[in-house]
Amino acid sequence: MAVESLKVLRARVVLPIRQPRLPNAAVVVSGGRIQAVGQWKDLRPHCAGSPTDLGEVALLPGLVNAHCHLDYTDMAGQLAPSRSFTDWIKRITELKGAWNRDDFARSWWHGAQMLIRTGTTVVGDVESAPDLLPEMWQATPLRLTSFIELTGVKSRRTPRAILDEALAAIAALPRGRHRAFLSPHAPYSTPPELLRRCGAITRRRRWRITTHVAESEEEYAMFTRRGGPMFDWLERNQRDMSDCGGISPIQHLARQNLLGDRLLAVHANYLDRGDADLLAINRVHVIHCPRSHAYFGHRPFPVTALMRRGVNVCLGTDSLATVATPRGQTAALDLFEEMRVFAQAHPRWPPDAVLRLATLNGARALGFAGRVGEITPGAWADLIAIPSSVGLREVAAALVHNRQPVVAAMIGGEWIAGFPGAYCTPSVQSAVGLREAL
Description:
By secondary structure, this protein is of the alpha/beta class. The chain is 34% helix and 21% strand.
């Protein structure tokens, strides 16, 4: 490989994540992938030319946001926390109904820009408006896994028609860096037949699939005892409630044959006895969204019970519609904030373990193990640099609590932010109907 194609990046400290952190280290990049990582004194004899010295920074893999709703970004601050999760669902449904396509496109774009600024390079995004994706995919350097959302409680179409429409939308999308799969919204909002059909097509095509499950106490009450505000509301809206009673939301997914090693179960806050074992046996990935969890005041997230059984737990930002922001501050999609809130709620967790929730574990959930979320030879060169002057022992804790901006970000060996020659996004004027280019 030609010497000219190499990028050699020096940093005060490199955090490979899978391996111990390295002081005065370097990462060698070529062809969009990492070729080598190690201390500079060891790599220097093998690297011709001058390295790029990033200075007093910690260099780590780009963060992996396993669950997000980019098209809800501009809903920040528009929905006050509610005691009733069901009431909140009603309010966000009304808000979505008042938005047009341009509102959703603009919101999506703002969210993608936030993720770049705060260090995410890979995102699993639940998409309620798949017609936005061709333009949005072209307009961002992020690595997108878009999950097309499906519901069906109030639809007059059959589950087969709903699924066929989603599959047609996926088939029409361009192939390249991004990809699209299915997201049946939640067991309370998706008919059992549609869940089963989604599970069957996912297994046949070896796709990832995601769903919100066991998020609220009201959902738990609906399935376990056929009661509560959610049960009453959905029954009034003519949902067939025959699938409720004597069963947890996780067990409901098991009955529909949806559990498996390609399922990303979002939230999983309210587990019945045996549910953690059920998730572990089926190798389901669980995505925790700490700020959303705090917004709704859910009971403590059962992370210890899940991980003791070997469940892969990772982090997501959810949407800004479920982030409470102190007065005078601006909300942002930010995995560093999610790590900080998680660490506050679970103070005994080592910082290195918290970092893995937003890197290695998210990569595994999205099917990118060994390619993102770590700095190892052969992985994609998705890297971020954060200002750091602390000692080697303190750097992981400092990153978990980081509030400083990302000073440089790279995806596939190309700078996308904070460095001369960084990615210059094309105009998305046609996508959002704006006169100015965003």
